[in-house]
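Memo to structure team: turn this sequence into structure tokens by end of day. - J.P.
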Amino acid sequence: MQDGGHDTEVLCRVRPEWVDHYGHMNLAYYLVAFDLATDRLWPALNLGASFRARGLGTFAAESWQAYLREVVLDAPLTADSAVLAFDAKRLLIRHRLFHAEEGWLSAENEALYLCVDLGTRRVAAWPEDVLTRFATHRTEDPPKRLALARRR
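Reply from structure team:
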């Protein structure tokens, strides 16, 4: 979902195997939840199965997470997602994870993806229709931690 409110559709619930010895969701499973949010975002950006059918894929190059409020067993989670920035070969997205019933923000994620030619396993350019979709899902919010290019 684009910036301006989070989706209330439940993305997932905290599963027993995701809970650690402190009684809350272990940090590794936040990445699982963020990956589920990515899977939900991809069709809106012309990515996913139709993109792979073109011989292209998305590879994650970098990610950052911030854990703001703990979630516990069976908590319903939802996410909002937005494009923060993009160029000819890179895409920077943001996910925010919310408690689906109570509405509070639990965690944030920024992820940098590369367009990859699956035949050569090399970075490639995004097709024009994909770039157009990125533009329609872009928020004006600046990234908190990541950037398209490495800072020197």
